[in-house]
Amino acid sequence: MSTKEKNAGARGVSAPPPLPLGDLVEPLLLWYDRAHRSLPWREEPTPYRVWISEIMLQQTRVEAVKPYYDRFLRALPDIRHLAEAPEEELLKLWEGLGYYNRARNLKKAAIMIEETYGGQMPDEYEELLKLPGIGSYTAGAIASIAFGQPAAAVDGNVLRIIARATMDDGDIMDQKVRRRVEKDLLAVMPQGRAGDFNQALMELGATVCIPNGAPKCAECPWHDRCRARIEGRISEYPKKSPKKPRVIEEKTILVIQDENRTALRRRPSRGLLAGMYEFPSLPGHRPEEEVLSYLNTLGYRAIHIRRLEDARHIFTHREWDMIGYAVRVDELDRPEFEGNAPFLFAENGETEEKYPIPSAFSKYAQYIRLRLGTERLKEGEQNNGGKSL
Ligand code: SF4
Which of 16, 284, 379, 386 to pair with 187, CA 20 to 30 A apart? Predict the structure, then answer.
């Protein structure tokens, strides 16, 4: 006996008959034609525009993506420009969106399209899957929306709404369940409207059958069909295995400046925030004395130190719990480093244009942007106390 039957038996009612997915297609498309939002990437769904939008939307809300999308398209209007863009320009355009590997993969894929596909985005699902950063969801979205190919585009939103509508007990974190849903959706894909069908599923998940908070069932085109709603069991779907807890990492961030410059360093070329710029930091939460003694070991003489606000940044599997200090030193670039300085030195006013600093550091990056020169920082030091040394 299935879980559904057991639950229904326990409640003294018979389980509803399974809901054929095909019954959901027409009401969904009618609703989409009437209610879909007008979004910049829907206006002219060229392969490039669909691709860029889908990559940006992977981890970011629609409203947050819009200004980034417009700016990106203005700076890099096509595949060739993207392939030729210097990495720092690209990361700068991406700054604030997070998950920077998405941007790097865009460039790698653009180079591959230029070299292998004559500069034209491939229109086949299987070929799209060969491009860096393109998984089954994005390949399905591009193939269906930009090329009208019958391909499913299944992400967490789609899994959630299908699980609710059909009371599917599969664990949506399980790849086998995802593949099954892709296959089932492909089997009912409406001819000639694959792109609209996929976008309608995404739209329903984003605006009506939402992930957090109560779904807006009264507005839903599946209101009279949805099994979970009819059974009063929406909160039980989708089924999901529990996530592993995030690793919490404590850090002490150091905004080290002299009269004209700020110390930065480049993160390693692999791993979290690869290749981005960051402030020097120490592991753990360090008291002022330890920060000063660390600077001493580097040969810096601190003139002034001040505690900054605490900050927290959450990544998918990791959380940074940060405290910070602003430290004024007499001179950053010391002759005794002889070309082996532990940091690089960003000139005042240069940082914003030249060095992509990930949003994880935004609480501390404001201290270099705010000052645009030393005056504002000096003001801040006076207002916020701190200690002259
Ligand atoms: S009726 Fe409600 S729970 Fe069911 S799919 Fe629609 S919004 Fe989601």
Answer: 16
- Convert the pLDDT of each residue in 48-99 to its tens digit: 999 999 999 987 889 999 999 999 999 999 999 999 999 889 998 998 888 8
Q: By percentage, how much of the chain surpasses pLDDT 90? A: 65
Contacts of 287 (CB under 8 A, 6+ apart): none
DSSP 137-204: HHHHHIIIIIT--------HHHHHHHHHHHT--SBTTSHHHHHHHHHHHHHTPPTT-HHHHHHHHHHH
Q: What are phi and psi of 319, to 5 degrees?
A: -135, 130
Would you state the structure tokens that stand for residue 93, as one six-digit string? Answer: 């355009």
Domain map of the chain by residue range?
19-236, 247-388
* Active-site residue, selected from the candidate residues 54, 182, 231, 278: 54
Query: Is the separation of the CB atoms in 206 and 157 below 8 Å?
Result: yes
346 lines ligand 1 (CB under 6 A): no
CATH for 19-236 is 1.10.340.30
44 tagged catalytic: no
The CATH number for 247-388, chosen from 3.30.70.270, 3.90.79.10, 3.40.50.300, 1.10.1040.10, is 3.90.79.10
